[in-house]
Write a structure and sequence with these properties.
By secondary structure, this protein is of the alpha/beta class. It has 6 helices and 5 strands; from the N terminus they run E-H-E-H-H-E-H-E-H-E-H. It has a 5-stranded parallel sheet with strand order 2-1-3-4-5, sandwiched between helices. The longest helix has 21 residues.
Length: 153
């Protein structure tokens, strides 16, 4: 069984790399897809492609529209969405991605620290699992794909 996993959310830490490393280590048949994770490119793509915008609102709006093409396509073709919420920034877009996944009937796993439990209670209630570490995400993928439970390290 092969899986496509969309890794949504926080872009300022190496959590995606940790998941990719764990997948490689276990030789799991998983394709990882992400939004554009270079913050400057994601913010500037609208103006860079469509030209300078008259206000900050339109600068952000054109970039968001172009980024949404990638995001919606990736979510629609994914078997699983993992959404990472970090403490430093509010990830409104990550919450939106989680909602798109749930609305489309795509399995959802959230990844965040305990201090965000209260703020994310509704998102977590819609998720099939709430993880604290990237390693837990890899363990879920291993179990789902193999149908076997390995002993945790």
């Amino acid at each position: 069984m092969a899986f496509t996993v969309y890794l949504a959310g926080e872009i300022h830490s190496a959590w995606r790399d940790a998941i990719a490393s764990g997948i490689r280590e276990l030789h799991l048949d998983v394709d990882l897809v992400s939004p554009v994770t270079i913050h400057e490119d994601s913010d500037a793509c609208g103006a860079a492609i469509l030209g300078d915008q008259p206000t900050p609102f339109w600068h952000d709006r054109t970039g968001a529209g172009i980024n949404a093409i990638r995001t919606r396509s990736a979510i629609a073709s994914a078997d699983l969405i993992v959404v990472r919420f970090g403490e430093k920034y509010r990830q409104w877009n990550a919450a939106f991605d989680a909602g798109l996944a749930v609305a489309a009937g795509i399995s959802l796993v959230t990844l965040h620290d305990e201090q965000l439990d209260h703020a994310l209670k509704e998102v977590d209630a819609a998720a099939q699992a709430v993880c604290r570490t990237p390693e837990q995400v890899v363990q879920i993928l291993d179990y789902v794909l193999s149908g076997k439970l390995r002993e945790a390290p």
